[in-house]
Automatic annotation (TrEMBL):
GO molecular function list: ATP binding; ATP-dependent activity, acting on DNA; hydrolase activity
Protein name: SNF2 N-terminal domain-containing protein
Coiled coil: none
Species classification: Eukaryota, Viridiplantae, Chlorophyta, core chlorophytes, Trebouxiophyceae
PANTHER family (alphabetical): DEAD-BOX PROTEIN (PTHR45626:SF38), TRANSCRIPTION TERMINATION FACTOR 2-RELATED (PTHR45626)
Annotated source species: [Myrmecia] bisecta
Length: 96
C-alpha cells in the first residue's frame, strides 16, 4: 500500500524493453505463439489504479490490455495473438 510497486514496474518495463527477435506473434518450433507481454495479476479493486498509473507513467511506450469482464477474449489462440500486441496484460485474481 503506497510503497511504489506500480512505479517500480513501470521503470522495469522501460529499462528492459522486449527483444525484437523472435517477433511477437510468430510461432516457435513447438507451435507456441511468441509473446513479449508482461502479466500483472492484481485485485479487482486495484485494476483501475494499475491502468491509470501505467497510462500516466509510461504513456506512449506501453499498450495495456485489461483481461477482465464479459467482453474479454476467451479463445486461447486469439488471446495469445492479442497479448503479443499489448506490452502489459492486467488480470485480476480471486481469493478462494
Amino acid at each position: 500500500m503506497g510503497m511504489g510497486k506500480t512505479v517500480e514496474i513501470c521503470a522495469l518495463l522501460l529499462a528492459n524493453p522486449a527483444p525484437r527477435l523472435p517477433a511477437a506473434g510468430s510461432l516457435t518450433e513447438d507451435g507456441l505463439i511468441v509473446s513479449w507481454g508482461t502479466l500483472v495479476v492484481c485485485n479487482l479493486s486495484t485494476m483501475g489504479q494499475w491502468e491509470a498509473e501505467l497510462g500516466d507513467k509510461i504513456a506512449g511506450n506501453c499498450l495495456v490490455y485489461k483481461y477482465h469482464g464479459q467482453s474479454r477474449v476467451q479463445n486461447p489462440d486469439k488471446l495469445a495473438r492479442s497479448f503479443h500486441v499489448s506490452q502489459v496484460v492486467l488480470h485480476r485474481h480471486t481469493l478462494q
